[in-house]
Amino acid sequence: MGLLFLFFQVAFTLFLQRALASQQLLTSITDGCPQACAEISTLLGVSALHYPDNDPSFEIWDAKQQEVRPACRAEPSSTADVAAILEILTANWCTFAMKGGGHSRAVDASNSVGGVTIDMNKFNAADVAEDRATVRLGAGLTLGPAYTALEEYGLTFVGGRVDSVGIAGYTLGGGFSNLSPQYGLAVDNVFEYELVLPNATAVNVSETQHPDLYFALRGGVNNFGIVTHFTVRAVPQDEILVGAKVFALNYTDRVLDEAYKLTTAGSNDTYMAFWTRYAYNQSADSYDLSLSQAYSAPVLAPAVFAGVNSIPYESSDLRLDRMSAYVAASASAFGNRHLFTTLTYTPSAALDARILAIFDEELQSVKTATGFAPSVVTQPLHANAIKAMRLRGGNALGVESEADATLTVSLLTFGWKDAADDEAMYAFAVEV
């Protein structure tokens, strides 16, 4: 385990060094961008091309990205537009970034530093197939509107839990879901991609068409072209159990023990999903401990949660609800600076407790930073999700576990307000 932590620390340190240096990009990859912007304006029309000094409506989740100044922001409305823009960028040797939902913490990820930001917000349709087995989602959709559109048909899809997260980044990166114990990650429920290749050719990518690209796009993120549409599994669903219970800290060991049981023995019930959250509350200088429950059926108190429901709690918002309403209530505020990273390991209540202890210890030196709001979120990567990674030719995530056993994924996520605290925040992430 020590080598694993060392590898993680080195890898994450390199990532942070790259992030801190991202605004020192070579001018050679942006010199042609003014000309590219002019040509894109001719292509799309002036109403779909925006310059940073006259773009007041543009908003992006992470404040570090909001501060970035691209050469311009383009809003294509068709796959042909995307292909033409890519040709222009290539001809003018201009760097670019893609914005789907814009929910990345990395500068230059979805708002280009000095280049062209391609904003996919007009790709916002959710088209349900006649047989209602699949739905075609535009790459500019976010989770909330996608859920709302499908619920009109009594359907849902393998999606996440925060309404402003974009379909594109979420799906290309993997995609945890309440439905993962039944169907796997979001990336393993994509049947077809519409993709604009680097040579500006648009192709459909599936298990039978360009299978090498199909494999790569399932976990290889965004380095193989520009995805404009995803055809994904549609799942019948109405109201389900969602919500969380908040516990006093003296019940931490019991909560972690029940979480371990749910991760291991409880994982036989594939309708069940859960995650724990241990968060520092800066205003009270205290901690909040909660366990969120999801059950993909209209059952308010499923037997699988009997153990955790036996623990005395301080508050609860458990309810039957639709996913669109649930993710809207879980919205993530704009205007803060963010970092997040994960660690994956064999389930262990002792290691869960040790991670929380390290979190407590390391945040002491930075807890007075303005707007500091850190938390550790822990959830299982279900055995069925690991098995699903091998379907239709497999994926590029490279996740394995002994005998396909369930794994634990621990997420460190936090926000803060001031750029002056950036270096301290990056150091905190590395130390934890």
UniProtKB/TrEMBL annotation:
GO MF, one annotated term: oxidoreductase activity
Stored PROSITE patterns: FAD_PCMH
Position of the signal peptide: 1-21
Gene3D superfamilies cross-referenced by the UniProt entry: 3.30.465.10
FAD-binding PCMH-type domain mapped to chain residues: 66-237
InterPro entries, alphabetized: FAD-bd_PCMH, FAD-bd_PCMH-like_sf, FAD-bd_PCMH_sub2, FAD-linked_Oxidoreductase, Oxid_FAD_bind_N
Keywords: FAD, Flavoprotein, Oxidoreductase, Signal
PANTHER family, per the entry: BINDING OXIDOREDUCTASE, PUTATIVE (AFU_ORTHOLOGUE AFUA_1G17690)-RELATED, FAD-BINDING PCMH-TYPE DOMAIN-CONTAINING PROTEIN
Family: Belongs to the oxygen-dependent FAD-linked oxidoreductase family.
Protein name per its UniProtKB record: Putative fad binding domain-containing protein
Organism: Botryosphaeria parva (strain UCR-NP2) (Grapevine canker fungus)
Upper lineage: Eukaryota, Fungi, Dikarya, Ascomycota, Pezizomycotina
